[in-house]
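[09:14] KT: can someone run the structure on this one? pasting the chain below
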Amino acid sequence: MLRMANLPKSFWGEAVVTACYLINRSPSVPLDFDIPERVWTGKDVSYSHLKVFGCKAFVHVPKEQRSKLDSKSTPCIFVGYGDAEFGYKLWDPKEKKMIRSRDVVFHENENLADFEKTEKPNATVGGVPDLTPTSSSSDNATNREEVQDENYGDEPTEFDADEPAGVDGDDMTDTDGVEQGEQPPPLEMVETQVRRSTRERRPSTRYPTSEYAMITEEGEPESFQEVQSHKDQQSWLKVMHEEINSLNKNKTYDLVELPKGKRVLRNKWVFKLKKDGDKLVKYKARLVVKGFSQKQGIDFDEIFSPVVKMSSIRVVLGLVASLDLELEQLDVKTAFLHGDLKEEIYMDQPEGYKVKGKEHMVCKLKKSLYGLKQAPRQWYKKFDSFMVGHEYTRTNADHCVYVRKFPNGKFVILLLYVDDMLIVGQDAGVIGNLKKDLFKSFDMKDLGPARQILGMQILRDRKAKKLWLSQEKYIERILERFNMKHAKPVSTPLGSHFKLRKKSCSSSKKEKEDIASTIYSSAVGSLMYAMVCTQPDIAHAVGVVSRFMVNPGKDHWEAVKWIFRYLRGSSKLCLTFGDSKPILEGYVDADWAGDLDGRKSTSGYLFTFAGGAVSWQSRLQKCVALSTTEAEYIAANEAGKEMLWLKRFLQELGLKQDGYVVNCDSQSAIDLSKNSMYHSRSKHIKVRYNWLRLVVEQQLFELEKIHTDENPADMLTKVVSREKLKFCVGLVGMNSN
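[09:31] RB: done, structure tokens below
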């Protein structure tokens, strides 16, 4: 086995183990030609996973363990099968370590000799590369194993362009001659290489190169070539034709000769299955420009494009519930194709749709296309000019909210989030007129009464004048994604026994690799989206675990799982609007020196409108407060800024109230906001925080005292008891529908 694989004698142990593995799965004479493995386990034996010992293999590198420019696979040598864990055992000659993985592509007609042809060995001993492990200790090898819980190795995986599938080593490098400028190798080495390369190489007949294709978990093709052999080929080709027709209809580009000195951008097809739970809604195909090759100042200039704030969406939904307004939703088809380009940009013709006789020509873009860096900005400018031209006013508080007031006292509000729109008004006829104008200028889809926006379900009871905003489906999806769907629920977002600090971060290399495999960052990001949209009760917990994104430890991961367990029992909680009058009210609190590492304090504020929470925040303060008064005073400053923004937004929508109140449970902070009576203890406070005194003096809003037991902002700054959390959740309008 070692001789046929051209492996040194140091791999005799792996060869013996592999031989035993194969003997136990071969007919045995003492067992009347039965299979030992089948006799021992009582199960049928599979041979589909067997590979040629010592052959070349490419191990897939998970996305979490590589950067954007790193190779997606690692070339290795196959040296055995797994015992306790079903997977392949491979040797990385470059890093000199053993790897266990299930996600492997094998080149069974290539072996160690082919490594010498593709890369120059660092050290040789008698013409054989030095592949001896750095440590013969089996324990050390075990500690460095990398087990990937991916699809089984027979499935082809995505690998780097430098490692093409089905290319024989003889085609990659010509060993009969010496490249110009290189010194010829010693005669002994050449003779040794010839002696080791006498084995006849034949292409693998089990898996032809043409059959390799990577299909994602949802059955979405990755390229145009995969569409050609996909089981749903006709469905994908249909949506591709629709995309091309849409481009032609919008006159997105013209076919021209490429001017001298101009560069061409490449493009690719992107395919997506849109689903509602487990139900397939539609197939979607997009032609996307590879905008990462654009150069600033040549291909683009400004790229910023605003989107509607989550707080604005919740405020408007609260207004809809309390005033029983009409709520309609629209979707813009191919929104980015409507933006006009001012730069001169050229692109290759779309793959599969090159015009016959004009294959050498390129596309000169007249309008923006998906993938261009300036595409979102150009679309927003186009839509903004349309709305302003139809006498709608862009609000200063949120540039993606447009309002128009009519002489009869009626009004229409439009919210824009890229290509999703919510239209709110008192009269369905007025909304219908706006829809007609939009349909004349853009390719739109009328979704009727709004039922979902940005992954949040909208439920209404117009008789009771109530509206619910829920993320139950999203929460169930992330619980299933992180294998927490059947976890035992807990009653608080963060247990009081958690003392998270930097000392708990991973220290050894193995610990870092273990925690990295838990996709900590992805889990926290998923929790953060739920918190930003509809879950203010987990704001403090998510804020704490997000401080350790760079180097999380075991305790930090346990805290993340605790939050998932809390969501497991509270996924049906949703924000409720309409339980009270459309009055804006704020709450603020601070936890003095709650951070165990830097001893910074935590600020938390929460604003309710029409019975439900519309804005909240839990964040570490930027400086170290020397007293509870100072911490509460700094938190009140942050809450004051948010109050003024919400006040201005509501006034631009045409809603006013007698007074605007922010409730604070610190009397000393309220007194400090009115005068400087504690000068000797407060003169060090930065001038920027004394802004609060000015706005209170101008009566832009009021700071009022509230008892700590009645302050819902408490849950945003610290771990609270089960009873207090239940009270806070109810006070901010979080109820089960």
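[09:33] KT: thanks! Residues 121-129, 132-195, 209-218 have pLDDT under 50 and may be disordered.
[09:34] RB: yep, looked fine to me
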